[in-house]
Amino acid sequence: MRQPEFPVRGSDTAHAFGWGLLVASALIAAISVGSRGLKDFDPALVSYAGASVFAAFGIGYRYSMWLRRPPTRMYWYRGWQLFMKPQHLLGNIMHLASIFWNNIFLQRFIEKRSRMRWTAHWFLAWGCLLAAAVTFPLSFGWVRFETARDNQEIYSAFMFGIPVGSFRLGTVVAELTFNILDIAAVMVLIGVFFAFWRRGRDRDARSVQQFSNDLMPLILLFAISITGLFLTASTHLMHGLHYVFLSQLHAITVIFTLLYLPFGKFFHIFQRPAQLGVDFYKKAGAEGEQAFCARCGEAYGSRMQMEDLKAVQAEIGIRYQMADGTHYQDVCPPCRRKNLALAQDGLWKAHGMDVRGMGKEL
Amino acid sequence: MAKLPTDIPELVKQFGPTLHTVPPGGWVHTDKDEKLVKTHCCFCGQQCGIQLRVRENKVVGFEPWEDFPFNRGKLCPKGVKRYMQDEHPDRLKSPLERVEGEGFKPIGWDAAMDRVVSEIRRIQQKYGNDAFALLTGASLTNEKAYLMGKFARVALKTANIDYNGRLCMVSAGAASKKVFGIDRSANPWSDITKAQVILVAGANIAECAPITTDYLWQAREKGAKLIILDPRMTPIARNADLFIPVRSGGDIGVFNGMLHIMIERGWLDREFIAQHTTGFEAVMETVKKYTPEYSAKIAGVPPEMIVKAAELWGPAPTSFLLHARGIEHHSKGVENCIAAINLVVASGRIGREGCGYAMITGQGNGQGAREQGQKCDQLPGSRDISNPEHRKYIAGVWGVPEESIPQKGLSAIPLVEAIHDGRIKGLISICFNPAVSLPDGNYVREALGKLEFYVNIDFFLSETARYADIVLAGSLMEEDEGTTTNTEGRVIRHRQAVTPPEGARQDWAIINEIASRLGYADKFHSAPREIFEELRIASKGGVSDYSGMTWDAIERDYGMFWPCPEPGHPGTPRLYEGGKFGHPDGKAHFLPIEWRPSAEMPDEEYPIILTTGRVVSHFLSGTQTRRIGSLMEQYPQPRCEIHPRLAEKFGIAEGDFVKVESRRGEVVVRAQVVKTIRPDTVFVPYHWPLDRSANNLTIRAIDPVSNIPEFKICAVRVSKTDAPTDAIAQLEMEAGGIR
Amino acid sequence: MSEAAFFIDHSRCIGCQSCLQACAECDTHRGVSMIHLETIQRSDSVQTAPQVCMHCEDPICARVCPADAIKKTPDGVVQSSLKPRCIGCSNCVVSCPFGVPKYRAEIDQMMKCDMCYDRSSVGKKPMCATVCPSGALTFTTMEDIQRTRSGIPINTWKFGNEVVKTRVYVMVPREVEQVNVDLVQISSTPTALQDDPYDVALMLEDAQ
């Protein structure tokens, strides 16, 4: 899809570049410190870490560009402002927990869009997050596993070099730990299956979906999951058959996805929490002063939002000031629609219905 | 029989109406495993083309059919949502038997048929053949309409068969027949778009024939002037060139007044009048006194409006007249129509491109269903049942002795009166809901309660079916096939989309079965395609001659216009070309019309005029549309439209509950205070039953010629009242409740 | 033959709601109607106002969207908000000069008229413009509209100082070049006309 024209200033790019570098540097520093000066860093995973650093740069860049847009900046600023209000902070944190549970963990709003979509998305999201929670700390050298010196049967886990627990081989915990990525892969595959099934059947999805934006991410996730599962199969069932080739293939799919992360559909993972901020904004708006329509006098939204919008509109060059000193933003949407029909009908009336048929051959 | 087998809330609980809101399978977004069936809407006389989306023998949606030339994909909201009558929870899927004190219980077809046939025999043996009557409908296909007429005359041998087209097209038909000699719209709709002035009399086109709106606009974009006569400013009247807010029943004032001015100013086609018409002298004589002032008094409008109308209509090179129930639903309905048609004939603008006249048919097969012989006075082919030649021909087609065909029977209102009087004891009805649709509703329901035996054939348990002893589960339009004839006289093909649900039967199969059990299996065994073949022959040589048509040709040509007298004939879209009219003398017959008062004029006791009509989201008695959720949402309960001046007089504000009373009954509805209605008139739409039925108020007066009831004017009084709290008011709005 | 376009003639509208009923049958939002149909003021007139998305060349809804969730397809159709991005803030709802986007609280997402993209993207007409009995909503070629209408189609609007160009056209009398939208006060039509042009009692005054 074409991006709508939006003024991107030169300084924005420089600014965003700076932020990208900052986020990438921060990640490098965190890897370095977290792996105790690379002591715990697994060189075999360096390509993953490298791709992650690039992704961090991209996300920093993109996030900064996004926040530079006046409407986004307005919400960002207002969201934090409302959230941090000292007298509301505690309540806000509680509320945040609740909307986080509903919107981010359970993703209830997606369920209402379509149950099939929700099923697919829930499996995809939590499969991916589960996998990420394991692989990133591993490839950054933040987490490592060692067999105990005195007992080959016992594994110890270290985070940032600090022992955080141990377990015996063959226990449930061990099985879970070693197979957690397989579980994640299966979840993702279930999600991918539902998503493709829906996208193949649904006339709505079929008409608006695009390969690069909607199908590509699913293909990437499928590729990661299936190659990951092949690795497990190779190790446990086929005595390491083609293991090297498979691990390279798997690495390629993961690295490609990491590089794609800031630029494609996956970026919504980072954008989505903004929904939480909007929730606070809407709550404050509903509790605060209302805006009343200049035409019908009915309340149609929060005064704060209308005033914020006027500021945003001024910044991006939307000029709704009317000649008589009123502002079009002060008219409610139903009145705008009525107004349009009255204006159009009025044109015909003003010119007389006689103009119908003028200059037409009968 | 007594009245209802149990109380109304209990019947509603068992059989609805309830709302259907979600298509089978849910609001899915898929077209997998789907077929599209090209057919037509089941509702009004426009019979718009539509494609039904069918999946697993279920109608799941619709798709516009843009190739069909009449509506080119256009549909009104009823057409869009018509598919929601399929897979309906209220659908009858078995014959029902009345159980006193309980309601109705399902019985088998065999047992139901045994009972029906033995009761027919019993009543006819005891009281005579004519004591068993048949009431049918104008939404039946041509094939079914034909079958009903034959069934009454051959199997029941009763004179008393009539149909609910009696509430619809009979005034227009009679007037057209009297003046032109043929009962059909004279022109195809495409001629509307070529007219330079269009007169619409008593037709709320935007709501009752919405597709015609575009035809009006096509003409207007080319400069046509639009004149509207209506007591209410309807949506098409809002920006018409001339809107005449005529008092209901005063239309003749406008028509005669216009003709008066046309004569005065010489806006006549003298040559045409001389060559192709008779009787103009008498008309001239009559309209002499209809000066603008005199006419204006009758019409209840300023005289300048009538002058302006004459100035628009009189000198125009081409013109088109459209009228509908607004001028037809009167005890002088035929006269109203003739007065309007006189304007057409005097101008000589008929029978050519862009020049003509049409009546807007109300019911689905309003045109066709009155041609196939289910009217009390007609035989197939629009033949006259009292004409010996006609009887002989039909007797030959049916293979019965001419004398076995009964003579003319009672039309709908007298027929119901005969039931009330006890002269008619048994009734079969199909496709008719008189408990809601006939005037003087309390009287009608009383009559239904007096029948000794009543069989109702329907797909839902209508308000009328509640009085039945046996209800036979019939079929929807899309569960059967056949033809209908639309408002233009275009015969079109309804295709079957799905089969009836198990336990329900196609209407023709039900009738064939009853006839067979009465001993006429040899004459009643055909399915619709064969019935059409018989109908073709029966119509041959008649006015509405279908004999050259085949279903294949109808499909191929998107419909065929009658008369089509021999195979290969292209049909006749435009009648009266070359000034050749349908009377034996080939001429159009002017008839002088004098205005006379309506049966009940407002007086001190009942000072307000009530007029009734339809709203766009409902159809007729509402049996179908009051069961479709989104149509009910659009217009959930009747409201009484009242002008603020009148409302103020009675202290009525928008949304107040008002009681509207006439000498015959009352309704309680909410007021809708609008400036768009005459301040001496109130309007209540009639689609709702029981205490919400506008027909509780209307008068049982009928036109002497057409026998159409006077739905469009009676005297009422209006007062503010409290919210009703009785059991009926508590029902859902689709069942007659109020909110 | 040029490409088909969407034309609105508000003055033709008869308020029958076919568009609303048919809109909910469109597969990109089946069961939910996206088109608007306002009754302007029933006590005074039967005038109604249909409104589809005008598909602006530079959509204001997209410009004020904080989530960057509103996109135009290459063929110029402004789509419903992208599901993964929309955060349900309603900026678009209250900024659109035509009052088009709808915020659906139950799914916390903005949806809007997308010209029945499942249909128009494969050469079919949008539902509303196919069924509309009055021709207030029409989807046809420019040639056809010029042949069949006395007015002209224009697509330039002015709201205050904001000039908006749209992909959807409106039918106006010949000499009009752009629609200047001023505030037309409720309960009356433009001030140039008589008070209460639709009051039947006033029309009849002479007769009494």
Please characterize this protein's 3D structure.
The complex is a heterotrimer of chains A (362), B (739) and C (208). Chain A is mainly alpha-helical and 362 residues long. Chain A is built from 14 helices and five strands. Among the domains of chain A are: 12-68, no CATH class; 288-353, no CATH class. A three-stranded antiparallel sheet of chain A has the order 1-2-3. Chain A has a two-stranded antiparallel ribbon with strand order 4-5. The longest helix of chain A has 30 residues, at 172-201. Chain A is elongated and about 95 Å long. Chain B has a seven-stranded mixed sheet, with helices on both faces. A six-stranded mixed sheet of chain B has the order 24-26-25-28-23-27. In chain B, strands 10-9-8-12-13 form a five-stranded parallel sheet, with helices on both faces. In chain B, helix 4 (142-156) runs parallel beside helix 20 (507-520), helix 9 runs antiparallel to helix 12 (292-299) and helix 9 (251-265) packs across helix 13 (303-313). The relative contact order of chain B is 0.16. In chain C, strands 6-1-8-7-9 form a five-stranded mixed sheet. Chain C has a two-stranded antiparallel sheet with strand order 2-3. Chains A and C meet through helix 3, helix 5, helix 8, helix 12 and helix 13 of A and strand 3, helix 2, helix 3, helix 4 and strand 8 of C.
